[in-house]
Design a protein that fits this description.
With about 550 residues, the protein is α/β, with parallel strands linked by helices. It starts with a helix and ends with a helix. The protein is built from 18 helices and twelve strands.
Length: about 550
């Protein structure tokens, strides 16, 4: 019930209420439905309590290590195999649509629309083949993938990146036709979405590249500069550094004239973390530049510069309205915080080791985009970006009463969910069986790299937990409150308590809440593209969460 309340609050915070939602008063039927939902929720909690009592009693009191435990394990594995054989034989009667797709995939239909879900393991060589098989066999109207735009861009080759929407702008010279241009925009322009920027355009001959000191001429005006810089000032030629310097001089915007050739296909101003450090040191700011920046094509830029030379300040007027941009962006402060969190959690180590072994991660997503491109259909992203994921993690890991209660309910639900994973019902994706099939396609290098990455990342996280527990226990011991033996027990209980809370809340933030976000993405994209048949490519951990929402809440 706590999870349902949080999801309802999150829905209200994530989007404004529609007019019918804001004005329609509740009816007696709605009240009755809410009452029935509450009854079902409390009945489910009661069932979880009973199952948990039986499960944990078996875990604590069962004679593990004896012959009976091995016999029970063999019986469980046999039952799992028999159950899956029965499921496969029953598929033609229960769900004939899945006969043409691999066993690792799932299917759901609602509101006259169909969803074919490809459940993958991101390092599996089998995953791209499954994607191509499903796209070829189902001929969907749209393909949706478990990525956001930023992560998809990082996986593309530079020549494959699609051109982003350009910024329209106009410049008017007295008694002449206006210069209309389509300019590339900076990454941070989205911070000023919707603002109308206007003013006279100024080009300083003594500072043509914007790397030198500005005078008072640019205050409340649009500063026009050339791209790049002199050989001895190339360290001051970064786009964001030029924008910082122009902003400190009082400019309203920075307009840059491009070199020969086409405009860049992606937004300007993105760089490495070390590059951002250098720019922040020179600009003395860890924030985004407070003014927008445009990169004009060379032809229009030269026209504008010639017009500025023909007259003084105020001779040429420029205007543009900053177009909205939802592309993920983060300042240096946020990048540092996120990088530290990824290192401490072991995620950076995990992916770093996997990269050292040259293991392809997420190849199924590029395969999905390529397959959609070949067939001339849309491939869209439905996952949350890193900023939103970190926000969810920070909220989930706060030890508030609501989060503590949610963690308790999650552990109570573990036996019920485990039964569904071990013996998946009809219509569910077999996560265990699918993972085994994907693991069977691993190369030896993949096994070694993944095992080493998991060992190092898990060791770091475990070491930090033990260090924290040792600090608490050592403080209690040195204060004279407990002896050494009791302090050791305190350390164990502290680490165990943190793990019990953290595992449940991490699952909520990383898996369950993203299931909800991706389900909304499926509904939104299917509506936007008027799609009747959709292919969704996501990790196996999210498969049943998305399919369950499709079946119960529709498309």
């Amino acid at each position: 019930q706590l999870q349902r309340i949080k999801r309802s609050l999150g829905t209200t915070m994530d989007r404004p209420l529609r007019e019918d939602e804001a004005r329609t008063p509740p009816t007696p039927d709605d009240a009755g439905e809410h009452s029935r939902n509450y009854s079902r929720e409390f009945a489910l909690i009661a069932l979880d309590v009973l199952l948990s009592a039986a499960f944990w009693s078996a875990v604590v009191f069962f004679p593990w290590g004896r012959a009976a435990s091995y016999v029970s394990l063999v019986g469980l594995v046999t039952a799992m195999v028999v159950w899956r054989v029965w499921r496969v034989r029953r598929l033609p009667q229960t769900c004939p649509e899945v006969q043409t797709i691999p066993y690792t995939c799932g299917y759901a239909a609602s509101n006259g629309k169909e969803v074919f879900l490809v459940a993958t393991v991101h390092i599996s060589p089998r995953a791209p083949r499954d994607v191509e098989t499903v796209v070829d066999g189902t001929r969907p109207d749209v393909v949706l993938i478990e990525l956001d735009e930023e992560r998809l861009d990082s996986m593309r080759a530079p020549v494959e990146a699609p051109r982003v929407t350009l910024q329209p702008c106009s410049f008017t010279e007295a008694n002449n036709e206006p210069i209309m241009a389509q300019a590339q925009r900076a990454l941070w322009n989205g911070e000023m979405s919707g603002q109308t920027i206007s003013g006279s355009v100024v080009f300083q001959e003594e500072n043509p590249y914007g790397t030198g000191p500005w005078g008072e001429q640019v205050r409340d005006r649009l500063a026009l500069v050339q791209r790049g810089g002199p050989a001895d000032q190339l360290h001051m030629a970064a786009f964001s550094l030029k924008a910082h310097r122009a902003a400190k001089a009082g400019a309203r915007a920075l307009v840059v004239i491009n070199w020969d050739g086409e405009l860049p296909v992606s937004r300007l101003g993105g760089g490495s973390l070390m590059g951002d450090f250098r720019i922040a040191a020179r600009a003395r700011s860890c924030s985004f530049p407070p003014i927008p920046m445009l990169l004009l094509p060379k032809a229009e830029g030269e026209q504008l510069r010639a017009a500025c030379r023909r007259g003084g300040p105020g001779h040429v007027q420029g205007e543009f309205q900053v177009i909205p941009d939802d592309y993920p962006r983060r300042s240096l402060r946020r990048r540092i915080c996120q990088s530290c969190a990824l290192v401490v959690s072991g995620v950076s180590i995990l992916y770093g080791v996997i990269e050292c072994f040259n293991i392809d991660v997420g190849a199924e997503f590029t395969a999905a985009e390529n397959a959609a491109s070949v067939r001339g259909i849309v491939c869209a992203c439905i996952d949350v970006d890193l900023n939103r994921l970190c926000n969810r993690l920070s909220r989930a890991m706060m030890p508030t009463p609501c989060n503590l209660g949610s963690a308790v309910l999650s552990w109570l639900a573990l036996p019920r969910v485990a039964v569904q994973v071990i013996f998946p019902p009809q219509g569910h994706v077999d996560v265990v069986g699918g993972t085994i099939l994907h693991a069977a396609s691993f190369r030896f290098r993949t096994w070694v790299g993944f095992a080493l990455a998991g060992l190092l990342a898990g060791g770091l996280a475990a070491g930090l937990l033990l260090l924290f527990g040792e600090g608490v226990a050592g403080t209690a011991e040195h204060s004279g409150m407990v002896d050494r033996r009791t302090a050791t027990q305190i350390q164990a209980y502290v680490v165990l308590g943190i793990e019990f809370f953290a595992f449940a809340r991490l699952y909520e933030a990383v898996s369950a809440s993203r299931d909800e976000a991706m389900y909304r993405g499926v509904v939104s994209k299917a509506r936007d593209h008027e799609a009747r048949r959709v292919v969704v490519v996501c990790g196996a951990a999210h498969a049943n969460g998305i399919l369950q929402r499709v079946r119960t809440r529709g498309l």
